[in-house]
Amino acid sequence: MSEYVQVSTAAPTREAAVELAQGAAAARLAAGAQVLGPVTSVFWHLGEQGTGEEWQVLLFTTADRYPALESHLVDAHPWDNPQVTAVTVVHGSADYLAWIRRTVENG
Questions:
Q1: What's the half-sphere exposure (Cβ side, CA atoms, 13 Å) at 65?
Q2: What angle do CA 36, 28, 77 make, to 5 degrees?
Q3: How many CB atoms lie within 10 A of CB 52?
Q4: β-sheet bridge partners, residue 85
């Protein structure tokens, strides 16, 4: 398993997305984050198909810090059941990956 993960969530507004990103970085659970959007989401919710505008948040951390980051995002999120997923980073520049590790380990 990779030592590094890219974590994804989405929020209903740009402000909520930035707050999630800032909170995770301030707690040193993520070395950094990017807020993208708006994006259009298509989903099933409460038995109905829906479409909505969301803001995506990508966060960068280590596999070891993922459980704490997930917990933080779920607790801080405005939605009851937010999407929080992680994908492994297969390759990355050595200096960038070292920066991620140093940043989240010093938290």
A1: 27
A2: 50
A3: 13
A4: 8
Domain that holds residue 27: 4-42+49-105
| pLDDT digit string, tens, across residues 61-74 | 999 999 999 999 99
Q: Measured between alpha carbons, how far is 65 from 63 in angstroms, rounded to an integer?
A: 5
CATH number of the domain within which 85 lies: 3.30.70.120
Which pTM does this prediction carry?
0.94
Separation of alpha carbons 83 and 48, rounded Å: 17
Q: With the C-alpha atoms ordered 45, 48, 51, 52, is the resulting torsion angle positive or negative?
A: negative
Amino acid (1-letter code) at residue 77: H
Position of tokens 């259009």? 40
